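Continuing from the previous page of notes. For each protein in this section, the sequence appears first, followed by its structure tokens. Read the first protein now.
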Amino acid sequence: MISIEKIEETALTLMDKAAIEIPQDYLDGLKAAASTEDGDLSSFVLQAMLENYEAAKEDRRAMCGDTGVPRWFVKMGNETQIEGGPIALEAALRRATAKATNGVPLRPNRVHPLWRTDHNNNVGIGAPEIEYGYEPGGEWIDLITVHKGGLFGSDYRMLFPSDGIEGIKRFYLDSLMAFGKRGLACQPAIIGIGLGGSKDICMTLGKRASVLRTVGSRNSDPKIAEMEDEFKELGNSIGMGAMGFVGKSMVVDCNIEVGYCHTGGMPMSVHAFCLSSRRAVARIHSDGTVEHRTDPDWFTDYQRRDTVEWNPVREAAE
């Protein structure tokens, strides 16, 4: 059984890591972009970003003044038992969020949508969001915190099957141009695209594609993986670089996730996980040991299963 004390302790550590330490996959992607960028202002911004990340880690200060809106993704093995159950788990994550807001510190960004009141700790009605996933076998919990920008940098459109790949490309480029020209996202960004599902699931797919996939990872469907490569190149061909300046480093990577949708439509969402890419992950085992990493490993074969029953032997054979 996994203790609540260990969950809260680990969650606090993750909040600190996410705000201060850039994930290695994004850092490597940014360095690659900086090595090829030839736009004067874009090159300057990229170099300033890299220096800022080093300073943040050395001084143990948040890498960006806007620390986004903390949220949690929780995945666990099928045999996992939690002291106090899921209610205690959620209470521990809310406590960790509140403590980290004052301790790291994080900017208290959460307010009531109408009255604009707040508790000064990023906790409130529906906040922080906690989303769940499960895997066959094992007794462990993966805690994933993401401090995602909570204003702009996302869009949605209901396309139709007849729009095809070209329609997807048009909306993708429309979104990137709006993000860059109107200052709706801080580039270079990890772009997540959600295709299919219902309207809300489409947005969820795109959001998860942007924050739970690492730079360089590819969809397990080879055709979608080819699209990801093509869309990364396409996004960097529009003449925009870091922070919307002239350049060719708009997109650090492009990740695409899909879900089955209504036969008459093709929902699509586009999300930018900004240049801070605040993400941290840890696995807590039943014996209390904790393993930290930066790859959420969310989109497993099980998460992308396409059958009624889960039979990994048959899935692998296909």
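Done with the first. The second protein uses the same format. Note its length before scrolling.
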Amino acid sequence: MGFYAERVVPRIVDVACGMKAAEPLRRRVCEGLRGEIVEIGFGSGHNVPFYPAAVTGVAAVEPSDVGWRLAGERIGATSIPVRRAGLDGQSLPFEDSSFDAALSTWTLCTIPDADAALREVRRVLKPGGTLHFLEHGLAPAEDVNVRRWQRRLEPLNKRLFAGCHLTRPIVDMVKAAGFTITDIDVFYEKRAPKPMCADSLGVALAGRHAADRTPRADA
């Protein structure tokens, strides 16, 4: 990563993702979180004020030192323990079945291997744990013109925002990682042009891990 991606982009994201218009969405996606949670793409901590009181601790996964420093004031203002516990959502440094819930907001667009990150999230969730997600990605199939513009703009968007994709099919990716979606809302945000803000906000349930389902030889 160069100077722009390491030093400039986290500050741009801090401002862009800190808009008042995003706060109702953050409040919605955090509803129902409880227990020990892992948040991938923690960024500068904009979700921290919306953690429910039922959250007992947060393992923050954030690669950017700048982003983590920018989060300092928000972390200091909450009574919920928040620790920086990882740098890479594609390889989480936690044991299987470690967390009650996971949170991801506007993160899967940028992780190089988002499919691997989702599999890792499912691995570290307890059976029956939930993934709460708010992500932008590929527009609905019926919006052909929006999808066309997303494909045109994606190369530029990736250069400007350190690899941020516009065309990832978020709901399909969550399902493919082994989650069962229990709640979903697909919509366009009003704060930006449609190609940039085709959002999916939902909750997905983690089932038993593949190893848990393997019959024992002596069964």
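What the second structure shows: The chain has one domain: 3-209. Confidence is low (pLDDT under 50) at residues 210-219. We return to this in next week's lecture.
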